[in-house]
């Protein structure tokens, strides 16, 4: 009997001497708790020196009554000598608790012939080595973000989560309560109820009667492409008693597998396993308690390999197991295939069949979220597949109808005294959606758009791509929906003489921001823009509430747009400084609010100061212009103010001379303010007060391509250097050709940061002339 109040885990150890004919004779242990039914002590309960052989299953008269069971069996062939050893068993894994009785029975079976010496048992003891030490029960776990299926009512109900339980325990009742307080988690994931994860409680007390505590970790499924991330939990202890940290399991590492991928026709590797690190519990699971060769296992043997790099590999060996009926399964961890296409499974194998006797089978199945489906069955009739020298390569297509957030695969082997099945280099690949949606959205896609987040929006029914939004501020928009609210080819009338695409989008956040700052990308099929393309598209237009033919000019905005090829279709990207509403592509000039049509904004250095000039061709409720100046192109301050005309359909010219500029380069922008207080910004220009030369460049900040307009249209070529914030030259190119005084610099692959772009022009007479730009890469 285990004394009441005793602290586990409880263990049993015994010494024994084995000299038995293998694999026909053998012995094992049965147990029962509180006079219950006798049961086989499972192999998984052994801490050290467990069963080493399964008795042959001959089904003959006089066969060992333990046939087919795991046992202790064998010594050196032909000998009757052996040596004493010790085996240890984890009794707590059997469900044994304080106050219960447990009994053991050692069973020995034989086939009745070729007996050797026997099995000797001595020094059986049941004990507990527990100390009041604190530890995590496990040191690692993993979860796929796509498994999130729970929502909370509220503004962030689109942010689904999945919950993982991590347990902290003390191995014996302490002499005084111990307070466990979590340290700030480390790892690459971000903590927060609208970030990657949250957990509770942050602290708790362990004491007699409460020797363990479950910690609930919530993992949130956002629409951000982040890659796999980690959370590392640790804690500190506070007590007046004898509790102390255990010598192991003082950290728990949670791996979060991201289920989001950059849109495009990119093949994505969902899973790869070469077993070089063994059978990781977070990635693969062997069903059942037996070990190799009686079940699947990772084999490390220089004489057994499939990969040219050598073993290890995953294998099950019916020949080595002997005459034992087996039906053994090994499963992969889960991976998310929702919205994926071209899902492929590949692996290399040696499936070796015995040509007669039991009809062995090897099966590969896939899980669709509720049922297993067979992908491959090979058997005695299909024959041997591969060899050690030339393994067979299997490439299997997984139907997209099986796609689900928690897909997994399994290998199942059924045999009895046959040969073996060995596999290696198991890989799952898939392609993310490359289709652009062109239908009206029945149910808008809702994704959480938090501070500085980048969310991708797909039609919930077709999984086709609609839009991408990058929040450039600390503002939390909460759950944000995107829908295609109109469709059609080319354009229709919008405001005044301007047009906008028939296909338009509507963006609705929970918490809008009239002064927001965000980058939005809209996706169009080439067939939707058969005529309205190229230079005809001048901007991305936006109107409050949605795009219609009767939009109020005062609530409509047009901003610069950058077009990129997206396979055979297109993506269009703009940066706005206003609230979300309706969006489309337009032929309106990209100058901010449409009520004021700004057709030019120029600047140059003069003897009086830095002279800024700009021209409008129409104005509605234009109150005034604020001239803002910056030394670094990012932090702007007031430089002056010029009153607007108000309402006008004529061309109006404005100018302002800045006399308070610092020496060197100054950056300028206009803030146009309406009579109702709404405002927008112009593009940024700069003036070099030393050289008097002016360059125009846009957009700034830049996402991909920076356009630079040289001050002299006759300039044919320049040299370009790009310096990062650490002073390192990261790009250099000589003799870059310009076209009509304009050139483009592709900064798509540059990391986010601040860069100095230096353009050098060789003069026919005199010294070389340099232009310096300060560019922000998002």
Quick gist of this model?
The chain has 778 residues and is an all-beta fold. It is built from one helix and 60 strands.
Task: Give an overview in words.
The chain has 778 residues and is mainly beta. It has one helix and 60 strands. Strands 48, 49, 51, 52, 53, 54, 55 and 58 form an eight-stranded antiparallel beta sheet that branches. It has a seven-stranded antiparallel beta sheet with strand order 32-35-38-44-40-41-45, with no helix packed on it. Strands 21, 23, 24, 26, 29 and 31 form a six-stranded antiparallel beta sheet that branches. Strand 2 (26-33) and strand 3 form a beta hairpin. The longest helix has 4 residues, at 318-321. The model has no long low-confidence stretch (mean pLDDT 87).
Note the main attributes of this structure.
7-stranded antiparallel sheet; 60 strands; mainly beta; 8-stranded antiparallel sheet
Helices and strands in order:
Blueprint: E1 10-19, E2 26-33, E3 39-40, E4 46-48, E5 53-54, E6 70-71, E7 84-90, E8 102-109, E9 118-128, E10 133-136, E11 140-144, E12 161-170, E13 178-182, E14 197-200, E15 203-206, E16 212-220, E17 229-233, E18 235-239, E19 244-245, E20 252-257, E21 267-273, E22 284-287, E23 297-299, E24 313-317, H1 318-321, E25 325-332, E26 341-352, E27 361-367, E28 372-379, E29 392-398, E30 408-416, E31 420-431, E32 445-449, E33 454-458, E34 465-471, E35 478-486, E36 491-493, E37 499-501, E38 504-509, E39 518-524, E40 539-543, E41 556-560, E42 562-566, E43 569-576, E44 582-586, E45 592-593, E46 597-605, E47 610-618, E48 622-630, E49 636-643, E50 652-658, E51 665-674, E52 679-681, E53 685-688, E54 694-698, E55 705-709, E56 717-723, E57 729-737, E58 742-746, E59 753-761, E60 769-777
Parallel strand pairs: 10-19, 11-20
Antiparallel strand pairs: 1-7, 1-9, 2-3, 2-8, 4-7, 5-6, 10-12, 12-16, 13-15, 13-18, 14-16, 17-20, 21-31, 22-25, 23-24, 24-31, 25-30, 26-29, 26-31, 27-28, 27-30, 32-35, 33-34, 34-39, 35-38, 36-37, 38-44, 39-43, 40-41, 40-44, 41-45, 42-43, 46-47, 47-50, 48-49, 48-51, 51-52, 51-53, 53-54, 54-55, ...
